[in-house]
Amino acid sequence: MIALVVSFSQVLDVTNNLGQEIKKNKYILVNYCDTKNKFCNILKPKYDELAVQMESSQFVIAFIDCSLNKDSCKNNEVNNYPTLNLYISGKLVEEYNFGPKEVVDIKKWLQAWDGKEL
């Protein structure tokens, strides 16, 4: 018997439609990354797990590949990878830079924003 394992990421790829998704979703966390960057690759499995854990929340967990869309990353003043920016109602509210990028820490930070209006 052969087992087939199919994995679908819960992370929304916004490489080609970042602006639309920021406007469309009330709460969206965007991971600005370059897929060739070592630190982005270290974060990826953690970010995927965060998306799974946050699936039933109102937060959209998204990703943009800055190697494919340099203009969007530049326009959002992203200078380092990975950069995690939280947008609420279309506005940047905060960049996550509170130490280690572990699932539990990012999730706790997001939950502190839950229900906040701008």
Automatic annotation (TrEMBL):
Keywords associated with the record: Isomerase
InterPro entries registered for this protein in UniProt: PDI, Thioredoxin-like_sf, Thioredoxin_domain
Signal sequence annotation: none
GO cellular component: endoplasmic reticulum
Pfam families associated with the record: Thioredoxin
Residue ranges annotated for the Thioredoxin domain, each copy included: 15-111
Protein name stated in the entry: Protein disulfide isomerase PDI3
Domain of life: Eukaryota
Any one GO biological process: protein folding
Gene Ontology terms, MF aspect: protein disulfide isomerase activity
